[in-house]
Design a protein that fits this description.
With about 160 residues, this protein is mostly helical. The protein has a domain of about 110 residues. The chain is about 65% helix and about 0% strand. It is built from 8 helices and no strands.
């Protein structure tokens, strides 16, 4: 008997076809739908241990995205909509990415230590000046108050 991850791996060629906008036959789309429904039914009934909950959630999301990819691709084929085919492509790519994360145990969420090390209080000010001379004077004045981070913007250059 195949594990849910192995069954999802078996769908990779069909998901690759959806992702690359290659022709996806009705049998391939039906296989994705049938497989994802069966695996979702089994996995939804499971209560994983705490250390596996992140991987379990990722796998459930990957299955749902694969199912959506097949349904949207079918809709795109029936209506001739390239926009819907691109939507299906994005769903297939997301499914494969989430499957890879579930396999490696990478939930994609930063650790609490990483978050506390990166997030610091900041005060942001948007300052407009009439000319370059005033801009230089303002930078010197603000820098004397403490640290200064200057973020250039192309917005003004486009006006």
């Amino acid at each position: 008997m195949l594990t849910p991850l192995q069954r999802l791996d078996n769908l990779k060629p069909s998901l690759d076809n959806i992702k690359s906008l290659a022709g996806s036959g009705p049998w391939a789309l039906a296989n994705i739908d049938r497989t994802t429904r069966a695996v979702l039914k089994v996995m939804s009934a499971l209560e994983p241990p705490a250390e596996l909950q992140a991987a379990h959630s990722l796998l459930l999301s990957a299955l749902q995205m694969a199912q959506n990819a097949a349904q949207i691709r079918r809709e795109a084929a029936l209506t001739g909509s390239i926009a819907r085919a691109w939507d299906a492509s994005a769903a297939a790519a997301g499914s494969m990415m989430l499957t890879a994360r579930a396999r490696t145990g990478n939930s994609g969420r930063p650790s609490a230590a990483a978050v506390s090390a990166v997030i610091t209080a900041r005060r942001t000010r948007l300052v407009r000046v009439p000319d370059l001379h005033e801009f230089r004077r303002l930078i010197l004045a603000l820098a004397s108050l403490g640290s200064l981070v200057l973020v250039p913007s192309t917005g003004r250059g486009q006006n």
